[in-house]
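Slide 14.
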Amino acid sequence: MAVVTVASAIERALGFIYRVYLSRALGAEGVGIYQISVSVIGLIMTLTSSGIPITVSRIMTKHSAAREGARNYKTFTAGVILSIIASAPIVFALTAFGNFFSFIFTDKRCMSVLTIMLPGVIITSVYAVIRGYFWGEKKFFTYSAIELLEEAVMLIAGIILINNAVSAEAGAKRAGLAVLISYAFSFAAATIVYFMHGGKLKSPKGELKPLISSAAPITLMRTGGSLINTLIAVVLPARLLLYGLTGQEAMSDYGVLSGMVIPLIYIPSTLIGSIALVLVPELADNFYRNNHVTLKNNVEKAVKVSVFISALIIPSFLSLGKNIGQMVYGNAAAGIYLRAGAIIMFPMSISLITTSMLNSLNLEKKTMLSFFAGAIPLLLCVYFLSPVVGVYSLITGLTLSYTITATINLILIKKTCKVKPRYVDFIIASFVFLIPSTLFGYLLNNVLGAFLPYVLSTVIAAAAVTAFTYAFFTVFNLIDLKDLFKKA
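Slide 15: predicted structure.
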């Protein structure tokens, strides 16, 4: 897991640097145009390939456990065929008849950015299958290296292309082209590595049906998530007009929240994604081999580490969010929204790890239902609260959504594991620890801010708050990092 975590952390760091660059090079308006276009392309890619990688991985693990590893190439080929069948018609339709679909955007400039990225849908859909194969074969280094290089290519291409863009639209278009270049790179690299390591294409006979059956619920769930993000990207700016904002102000506010604040809130997903990447094949293997005690231990460990990661970060964002937004983006509004939305990380971390675990335990349909149970209040909040509280409606909706999904997922895991995992007391204690740590952060920030530059006082306070929070976990003997890293 160490290799995956380090690679993922570097990848997210590069992505974060790129976000900062975009926010400064494009401005809030350009980031808004780019984010809306990316959310739509994300919806399309989710529809065409999102459920296939994890399903390919799980089915390969099942085959290996049954000593039928030769069927893995058939599963891989079935995944490639399904991805092409799903993606090619959509790309053709949007390319040939794009003008008929431009009505979905509040700002028509978004369609031109989307069109640039469209060719990447097909190649990325196929790459997703190759990624699932690497995942199933536990070739985590290969998987992580390609993902990292993809992010690096997008960063370099984006900086080169966006430099000296003459308008927000021109900059957003060039950012879209950088995305396409990174997609082409990862597809080419993954394809070469797959065949160099003996990969092959075989008749998918007998593998298409089980792959479709398992992938469909995950695809539907993730498509629903992307569709919701797309709806929010379209509906939220429009509803903000009723809040009294102009069209440009609405696009700027959405750009700040989605392009600057949300990426910071998703920082825990870097490590949680690494845990899930390594853990999913392991859980699937334990599940199919009936290793119930090991399964229970892995589930407990994953939930606790995910909660611990978010608990270390949240107090700094709650107490120092305004300073962090100004320091990172040079945008005061980003800091205010960050402070308001920091608590999202707590249920989000639980939701992310438990969804991955349930999918590995062949419970894709139930995770789909728990996701939609959380999605309904998110949409209701955005639609009805936006005219009243502005973009805070999205923060409220995300908090409710992740809390509902996380709660349902935790209940499902307990019902599924024959040896019951224990994590409720840990979750409650972790949440309670946020209160004194946040108060300590406020106090320390006020003291240091009186005689130190705000950047230096923010860095020192954040480090002290993190150490203070960690002290709670060690004093109450809730977590042993040495033991966790040893097991990892």
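Speaker note: The mean pLDDT is 83.
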